[in-house]
Amino acid sequence: MEPNKEIAEQVLREAEKSNPGAWANHSRYVAQACKNIAQCCEHLSADKAYVLGLLHDIGRYAGVSSEKHLIDGYRYCAQQGWEKAAQICISHAFMIQDINTSIGKFDMSESDYLFMKDFVANAVYDDYDRLVQLCDSLALPTGFCILEKRFVDVTIRYGVHAATVDRWKKILEIKEDFEKKIGCSIYKLLPGNYDI
Which residues contact 3 (CB under 8 A, 6 or more apart)? Predict the structure, then answer.
């Protein structure tokens, strides 16, 4: 069982007080994008998509970190009994289910790394996982953007890695899949002016 919208919003506000930063507004835009796209998918709940998008980076409550925020978020949500939110705290960073496709640093214990490696390899993704992966690439802290702008934003901050292009390709594939489901460009569902 996942939290309702009000609880998720309160949790994010508290986490933002614990570790202020642009990540919280980014999470709000991810949530809105998830909701807007899910509303056009019969098999998805817009409210659930919103909550999962809002909580995907909740592990950042624990302070500034790289990949550690994934396991911190997983543990936080798991302790609340929020199984899907816990999964998405990790899965949102691994659109390709291979720990070696990470673009961050594994700033965690060896046991946490091994847990995450196993988790990523064996997780069963559904359209909520894929939706958050997609929307994570549609949202800057200042608003919605085209995927390519977010790709550049992340690459400037994290650098180019062996899996960078494959990660981009996977997100573009997910975009195409959702556009087939909804019958229009995802950008039509996001407020803003896109020069595309």
Answer: 11, 51, 55, 80, 82, 85
